[in-house]
Structure formats: structure tokens, C-alpha cells
Design brief:
The protein has one domain. The chain contains five helices and no strands. The radius of gyration is 17 Å and the shape is globular. With 122 residues, the chain is mainly alpha-helical.
Length: 122
């Protein structure tokens, strides 16, 4: 084994470890967001149902996540969801924009931050 193979293998392993770390942090952040909103954290682990619950947390109408499957409408509903989620945690436009573009990172921030869930804005 030469030095290039050793460095390449280490680099790939390090990338995998960092990726798994961020994945676990994202799961933990969502879990905390669910708990802050009064839902069981395990619901954040179930595909589609977790999306339903997130839309219910942000909008009070979980069924609206289905609109995300319609092309072009998904962009509008995604923006609406992001801004509503920010408002549900007492945050403003900046947080809504960050949620739209970096949802996984912002779920960690909302979950582990000092933000309190205030309920969906109607």
C-alpha cells in the first residue's frame, strides 16, 4: 500500500464519519423540535409522517405537505412552511429564509436553541 492509497482511504473514512455525525445531529435536532411542539420525538423518524407532523407544527394543517408533491407549487408551499415554522418558534424573516435553504441545520438550531414553540400562526 502506497502513501496515496493510505491518505485517500483516511480522507474517505473521515468524510464518512463527519457525514454520519451531521446526520445524527439532524435527527436529534428534529427530535427536539418535535418535543418542543408537544409531539413525541420518535415521530420525527418516520418518513412522510414526520413531514405531516412538521407541517402540522408549522401551519396547524399537516395535510398541506401533500402540496409538496406538485411541481412548482412545492416551492411556494416550501417557502410558506419555512416562514410559518420560523413564526411558530417566535422568529422572523431571516430564520424563515435560513429554514428554506438550510432546513436541517436550522432544525438543529431550533431544537437545541432557547426558542420556545408558540404554536402555528393562523
Amino acid at each position: 500500500m502506497n502513501m496515496e492509497q493510505l491518505v485517500g482511504g483516511f480522507s474517505g473514512s473521515l468524510t464518512l464519519i463527519i457525514t454520519i455525525g451531521f446526520w445524527v445531529l439532524g435527527i436529534a435536532g428534529r427530535w427536539k423540535v418535535f418535543e418542543k411542539a408537544g409531539k413525541e420525538g420518535w415521530k420525527s423518524l418516520i418518513p412522510f409522517y414526520s413531514s405531516y407532523c412538521l407541517y402540522d407544527i408549522a401551519l396547524g394543517r399537516g395535510w398541506m405537505f401533500l402540496l409538496g408533491f406538485i411541481p412548482l407549487v412545492n416551492i411556494c408551499i416550501g417557502a410558506y412552511y419555512s416562514f410559518s415554522m420560523a413564526l411558530a418558534f417566535g422568529r422572523g424573516l431571516g430564520t424563515g429564509i435560513l429554514l428554506f435553504f438550510f432546513e436541517d441545520i436550522m432544525m438543529i438550531v431550533l431544537g437545541f436553541g432557547d426558542y420556545e414553540y408558540q404554536g402555528p400562526e393562523r
